[in-house]
Amino acid sequence: MVLAGKLSTEIGIKAPAAKFYDLFAKQLHDVQNHCERVHHTKLHEGEDWHEVGSALRHWTYVIDGEVHTCQERIESVDEENKTIKYSLFDGDIGQHYKTFLLTLQVIENKDGHDTVKWTVEYEMHHEEKEPPHGWMEYVHKCTRDIDANLLKA
């Protein structure tokens, strides 16, 4: 079994791409209010939720019916391409993965059918662990919840 890999999924959204992206780029603390699978978020280190590299956030979330935790830092932000790369570690992630990078890209399509692309790049500690397919389901469901809530706002 391979210890490293990459998984990706694209989900169509009805909310405007800019509004979806801005939630993650400027209101990350508010994600828990839009998605029932995110139970709690808090700024653990730093003063700005959106500071690249130094701000550290703690997340509590549900995947496959189980509560998980991790810490996260923003690795990079590309405003032009509406892309944010996060590094997740410690907690449940750190037990199973040496590296776990989560990338969000919000894609504006000319036909009005905007999409959200999530990519997970990972390296596992041990071969016994399965690839993080539960994460793909998690981001898919979260995207659906967030999209529905953004349409109401």
Automatic annotation (TrEMBL):
Any Pfam family: Bet_v_1
Regions crossing the membrane: none
GO BP terms in the entry: defense response
Domain Bet v I/Major latex protein, first and last residues per copy: 2-153
Domain of life: Eukaryota
InterPro entries to which the protein is assigned, alphabetical: Bet_v_I/MLP, MLP-like_ligand-binding, START-like_dom_sf
Record SMART domains: Bet_v_1 (SM01037)
Protein name: Bet v I/Major latex protein domain-containing protein
The species this protein was found in: Lotus japonicus
